[in-house]
Design a protein that fits this description.
The chain folds into three domains: 162 residues, no CATH class; 56 residues; 72 residues, no CATH class. The chain contains 13 helices and no strands. It is an all-alpha fold and 330 residues long. GO terms for molecular function: dolichol kinase activity. It is a multi-pass membrane protein.
Length: 330
């Protein structure tokens, strides 16, 4: 074959592949097009990680299946809601990959995942049908809105899969924490883990409210106003009557009336001090940090969690929540 013939063959092959791609109802090209048209800019140099949308539902459902007696009713409800959120994730991703979606089908498929999870809650958990639908459908619709909002507002911060797992976690947390907060106001929890869970729910709900206010109202971003909001968050976290006695008193008694917990806190303080000194030393040297050196911090976190899991699991749970709250705020 001559050079011209070879080039013509390549051109024909390219035209054929493009025609096939354009003819597909679901394709990567459609996904890229719809993301750009919706002003969604995914994290660069990374795959979409669509498999991530299965992680939270699998974790919750498998745990419910293997530990049905120890799983609370709220945990089971959240598990079925997570399944609905998984279906909602698939629905959104399929629509983004489709060449065109009918308006009626688009509206119908938005509520099908919520209806599915609601029916599962009603049938398998014997909860009233109205309450079941009040749990399932709003959660799915909220997820649908927040997922696209996060992708648009946090440009190049998430892949499609990463955004699903973040939004699923946020939706399930908001539902579970809100229900727990309301139930604890009616009847304070009895077990230590339930008490710590209630305290963390209030604290993290307060953090989300603080984020919402700062994000929505520019006036709240002023240092004085933000400081007042921060003080208000601390007071609400410490003195909202979700436990008996108040959370601040209960946490103080929980930590300082046990020698083992005090010892673990001292160990954590020592680790934090050494890590802080190391960071200060690196900053003073003004030298770049290698990847292998950064792994030291991963090792430190692993040590912290191993100590907590072995000796003070409940305190580790409590401390992790508070550290997360402080990390988000500061």
């Amino acid at each position: 074959m001559t050079t011209d013939e070879i080039e013509s063959v390549h051109v024909e092959e390219n035209m054929t592949s493009e025609a096939e791609s354009e003819g597909r109802f679901i394709s990567r090209k459609n996904l890229d097009f719809h993301c750009k048209s919706r002003n969604i800019h995914r994290r660069p140099n990374a795959g979409d990680g669509l498999w991530l949308c299965t992680l939270i539902p699998l974790c919750l459902l498998i745990n419910c299946w293997t530990h049905p007696k120890s799983s609370s009713l709220l945990y089971k409800v959240c598990s079925f809601i997570s399944f609905g959120l998984f279906l909602q994730s698939v629905d959104i991703l399929v629509k983004l990959s489709c060449r065109k979606v009918n308006i009626f089908i688009n509206a119908l498929t938005k509520v099908i995942p919520g209806i599915t999870s609601s029916l599962l809650i009603w049938y398998l958990l014997n909860i009233k049908i109205i309450l079941s639908f009040a749990c399932g459908i709003p959660s799915s619709l909220f997820f649908n809105f927040i997922y696209l909002y996060i992708l648009k507002r946090f440009s190049q911060s998430f892949t499609l899969g990463e955004a699903t797992i973040v939004t699923q976690g946020l939706t399930i947390f908001l539902f579970g924490a809100s229900v727990k907060f309301a139930s604890c106001l009616h009847e304070p929890p009895m077990s230590k883990m339930a008490e710590m869970s209630a305290i963390l729910s209030v604290s993290l709900l307060g953090v989300l409210l603080l984020i919402f206010l700062v994000h929505s109202i520019s006036f709240c971003r002023k240092p004085i106003i933000f400081s007042l909001l921060l003080i208000l968050w601390i007071l609400l976290s410490g003195f909202t009557p979700v436990t008996d006695p108040f959370p601040a008193i209960l946490v103080g008694m929980f930590i300082f009336l046990d020698v083992g917990r005090v010892s673990v806190i001292l160990i954590y303080a020592g680790i934090a001090g050494v890590t802080g000194a190391f960071v200060a030393w690196k900053i003073s040297k003004k030298s770049s940090t290698s990847v292998s050196l950064r792994k030291v911090f991963h090792i430190v976190i692993v040590i912290v969690y191993i100590i907590g899991i072995l000796f003070q699991c409940t305190m580790l749970f409590l401390a992790s929540g508070f550290v997360l709250a402080l990390f988000i705020i500061f």
